[in-house]
Amino acid sequence: MGMLIEGSQGHPIKERWNTVGVIKVAINGFGTIGKRVADAVDAQDDMEVVGVTKTGPSFGCDLAVKKGFPLYCTFDDEESISRFGMNGYECSGGLSDLLSVADVVVDCAPGKLGADNLSKYKSAGIKYMFQGGEKHSLTGLSYTSSANHVENLNAQGTRVVSCNTTGLSRTLVPLFEHCGSLKVECTMIRRAADPGDSNRGPINAIKPVLKVPSHHGPDVMTVKPEIEINSLAVAVPTTIMHVHSIIADLPPGHGLTTESVIELWSNTPRVIIMNGSEHRITTTAEVMEMARDIGRKWGDLHEIFVWEDGVKLVGDRLYYFQAIHQESDVIPENIDCIRALMGTESDWRKSVEMTDSAISRYYGL
Question: Is 163 considered catalytic here?
Answer without folding.
Answer: yes
